[in-house]
Amino acid sequence: MRITGGWADGVARRQSPNINRGHHSRELIVLHYTASYTAASAIATFASTSGKSSAHFVVETTGEITQMVNLNDTAWHAGYGVFRGGGQVNQRSIGIEIVNPGYHFRSAGGELLNWERKPVPESRLAPFPGLIEARDPWVGSARTWWPLFPEPQLGAVERLVRATLAACPTISEILGHRDVDGVRRLKVDPGPAFPMARMRRLLGDRADPEDIGGRRLVVHSPSSPLNIRGGPGTNFDKLDRGPLRHGLQVIELEVRGSWIRVRVGDGNSAFEGWCYGEYLRPAA
Ligand SMILES: [Zn+2]
Fold first, then answer.
1. 33 CA distance to ligand 1 centroid (A)?
2. Do 218 and 93 share a domain, yes or no?
């Protein structure tokens, strides 16, 4: 999956009106569950102005993804959050909503009850591969059951996180909504059934071009080193870390006209910028 101009290629799109244009920074990905059984109800909420909430992406149990906010804009998914001592988490993050109804209780007779303690037919849980029992102090002292997340859905979240990390190289953290709600302790999502560690590991993989989703390119500029700039055009400043020597391998991140955004190097020393595409060729 690639994200170009803030939109993911090949996924359904439904613009949410609940946004702010632009953003402050891109520092973290916040993972949520929708507290619903289907994507349709979450999408309807985010598409309605009365919902006053939104997320960049909604991931259905089947793995189908709907993008509702451009990555360059601010979604309303963690408004009261705190991250690294600061607020304005929406302005600093990408929000991904994963369809899952969250915790259930059981009646004395063993009947499944939703979070409002209303009975739920077991058939509503058919998309989910079982329940785990876990106690969560933020929910209270009652025993609670949490639906597991289907593997096609988790695979889709992984692909989305990888693509988001590639599109937003300044992101350094992946957290659950609950992790940024430690002051209020109201939000428990994505909950104990969600494999948070599996998603957080993707932060360590990001230098791998397979994960970034980009091609390997090689600088082909035998007569002089290739300038790398802050934007797609000669009117953007040259980066201090350039120019790039002939033969250097880079990773393609985004193409805009004749210009290509590339990642140079890996790990902590990696940097990104724009090069004129004429001087970049696919690596053998
Ligand atoms: Zn949430």
1. 6
2. no
